[in-house]
Amino acid sequence: MNFDIKQIVTATMVLFAVIDILGSIPIIISLRKKVGHIQSEKASIVAAFIMVAFLFVGESILNLIGIDVNSFAVAGAFVIFFLAIEMILGITLYRDDEPESASIVPIAFPIIAGAGTMTSILSLRAEYAVENIVVAIILNIIFVYIVLKSSSKIERLLGKNGLNIIRKVFGVILLAISVKLFATNINLLLTQ
């Protein structure tokens, strides 16, 4: 085992920023108002399973279609870059339609384990040890579960301005991470 606190913290922060569960609180609250109850436990477990499975089989899927991890990481850097721009500027470049029910599917996928999360997981795998990424996924899922369980309390506590500030701070962190990810992996691609 190759546990590294620095890698775990960085991977946790990247996934926290990409998942953006605090930024999704308005969607979660509107879903809760529509259907009454959100299955927090099931949504968290399914999202964790999707993320860990993609961590282990995502690279095989890429190899099957002829894409190496470094190329995917560079593409992931672009996706993370645009997610960061959305968070910092408060604009929406792309967003799926709001889900109509609060079943496992819209909460676990795509709200928690969406395309940005999957891209980030494989991009992190290009740089970090797998066990550190698994720990980061588990830490994020625990946080996601807590947020899903207490979303209305968090909304009242932080208010709209508090949520916006948190979102912008993590947007800047995500932007810096996307630049680092791009720089590291583009060098590896160009030297091949």
Automatic annotation (TrEMBL):
Keywords: Cell membrane, Membrane, Transmembrane, Transmembrane helix
GO cellular component, as recorded: plasma membrane
Topology of the protein relative to the lipid bilayer: Multi-pass membrane protein
Superkingdom: Bacteria
Compartments where located: Cell membrane
Pfam families for the chain: MarC
Entries under InterPro entries matching the protein: Multi_antbiot-R_MarC
Transmembrane segments: 12-31, 43-66, 72-94, 101-122, 128-148, 169-190
PANTHER family cross-referenced by the UniProt entry: UPF0056 MEMBRANE PROTEIN YHCE (PTHR33508:SF1)
Family: Belongs to the UPF0056 (MarC) family.
UniProt protein name: UPF0056 membrane protein
